[in-house]
């Protein structure tokens, strides 16, 4: 039977980094109110209302973020999580292929 080794200090680093990520994601949601951000969504909305001032969106948002900067944060967070999952799976498949090739 194999002996179990004591966990290295790396898990502490991982936990601390994950907590920092959570704080970075939650801070704007909790403390920033009425932030304004002139992004692409704002420009598109302005162009639509110039063409048709009575236009109303056909779908209403389930969760309304407190401001444009928070909306951008959530979009970036979604992109980061998605790419993290994608490249993690890519790495697992690559490593599996490499181990099968060496075996």
Automatic annotation (TrEMBL):
Pfam families registered for this protein in UniProt: CbiN (PF02553)
Membrane association type: Multi-pass membrane protein
InterPro entries assigned to the protein according to its UniProt record, in alphabetical order: CbiN
Keyword Transmembrane helix annotated: yes
Family: Belongs to the CbiN family.
Record function comment: Part of the energy-coupling factor (ECF) transporter complex CbiMNOQ involved in cobalt import.
Domain of life: Bacteria
Name of the coding gene: cbiN
Entry keyword set: Cell membrane, Cobalamin biosynthesis, Cobalt, Cobalt transport, Ion transport, Membrane, Transmembrane, Transmembrane helix, Transport
GO molecular function term, any single one: cobalt ion transmembrane transporter activity
Protein's name according to its UniProt entry: Cobalt transport protein CbiN
Summary of subunit composition and partner proteins: Forms an energy-coupling factor (ECF) transporter complex composed of an ATP-binding protein (A component, CbiO), a transmembrane protein (T component, CbiQ) and 2 possible substrate-capture proteins (S components, CbiM and CbiN) of unknown stoichimetry.
One annotated Gene Ontology cellular component of this protein: plasma membrane
GO BP terms, alphabetized: cobalamin biosynthetic process
Subcellular location: Cell membrane
Record-linked PANTHER family: COBALT TRANSPORT PROTEIN CBIN
Keyword Aminoacyl-tRNA synthetase: no
């Amino acid at each position: 039977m194999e002996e179990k080794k004591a966990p290295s200090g790396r898990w502490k680093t991982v936990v601390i980094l994950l907590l920092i990520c959570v704080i970075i994601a939650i801070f704007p949601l909790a403390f920033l109110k009425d932030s304004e951000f002139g992004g692409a969504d704002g420009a598109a909305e302005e162009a639509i209302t110039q063409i048709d001032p009575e236009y109303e969106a056909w779908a209403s948002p389930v969760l309304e973020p407190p401001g444009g900067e928070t909306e951008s944060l959530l979009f970036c967070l979604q992109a980061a999580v998605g790419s993290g999952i994608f490249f993690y799976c890519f790495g697992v498949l690559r490593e599996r292929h490499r181990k099968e090739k060496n075996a």
